[in-house]
Amino acid sequence: MSPGTGSGAGEIDALYRKLFDEAEEGGYHLNPDVAFTKGLVRGLNTNGLRYGYMSCPCRLASGKKEEDLDIICPCDYRDPDLDQYGACYCALYVSDTVLAGEQKVVPVPERRPPRSQRLQHATAAPVAPGTLAFPVWRCRVCGYLCARPEAPLVCPVCKAKKDRFERFM
Predict the structure, then answer these.
(1) 3-class SS of residue 146
(2) What CATH code is carried by the domain that includes residue 32?
C-alpha cells in the first residue's frame, strides 16, 4: 500500500475503498462504522505522507521504518487482537462476530513491547541454523506455510479459516 499525495475527501474515499477491498479479499473486515473507519484511514494516509509508510494511526511511530515494521498496517498484532478481542488495537479491522453485530468493540490492550525490548530483540544474536524462532503453520487446504506464534485467522491464499491450519514443524 502506498500513500497518496494529499488528504482530501476523494483521496481518503479511494484509500478506504482500496483497504476495504483488500481486507475482504483477504478474509478480513474493516470496521462497519464508516465515519470512524475513514478517520483511521485519514490517519494511515497522514502517516504514509509523513513517514513513507502507513503505520498504525493509533500508535506513535519512530519515523524509522526498520523500527516500525511491526506497526505498519496491517500490523503484526492484528490477528491475535482479532482472535482475542474481536477487533485490532485501533479497531480498523474487526471479526466476523463484530461485523454481524453479535459482539461489541472493546478496548484492546497494547501488545507491542516497549521500545527498549524491541531494540533488544532486534540486536539479539541470530537464531541458530536449523532452528526457528516460531512454529511453522501449514494450511491443510492449499499448503501455504508461515512461521509465526499462531496460525493466521485466514489463509491469505485460499481463505481457509484458522482451524484448517496445522503445526508443520
Answers:
(1) strand
(2) 3.90.460.10
> Computed from CA positions of residues 130, 131, 134, 140, in that sequence, does the dihedral angle turn out positive or negative?
positive
The candidate with the shortest Cα–Cα distance to 77, out of 152, 161, 154, is: 152
Provide the residue type at 107 as one letter.
P
The answer to whether 163 touches 154, Cβ cutoff 8 Å, is: no
Mean pLDDT of 122-129: 62
How many whole angstroms separate alpha carbon 159 and alpha carbon 169? 22
Question: Per the domain annotation, does 108 fall within a domain?
Answer: yes
Is 130 part of a structural domain of the chain? Answer: no
Domain match, 74 and 146 both: no
CA 82 to chain CA centroid, Å, is: 9
User: What CA–CA distance (Å, rounded) separates 25 from 33?
Assistant: 19
The per-residue pLDDT for range 74-91, each reduced to its tens digit, is 998 999 999 999 999 999
User: Which domain range does residue 57 map to?
Assistant: 9-122
Question: DSSP labels for 110-136?
Answer: --SPPHHHHHHHHTSPPPPTT--SS-E
Whether the per-residue pLDDT at 131 is higher than 90: the answer is no
Residue 163 domain-assigned (yes or no): yes
Q: Report the predicted TM-score, pTM, of the whole model to 2 decimal places.
A: 0.77
78 domain-assigned = yes
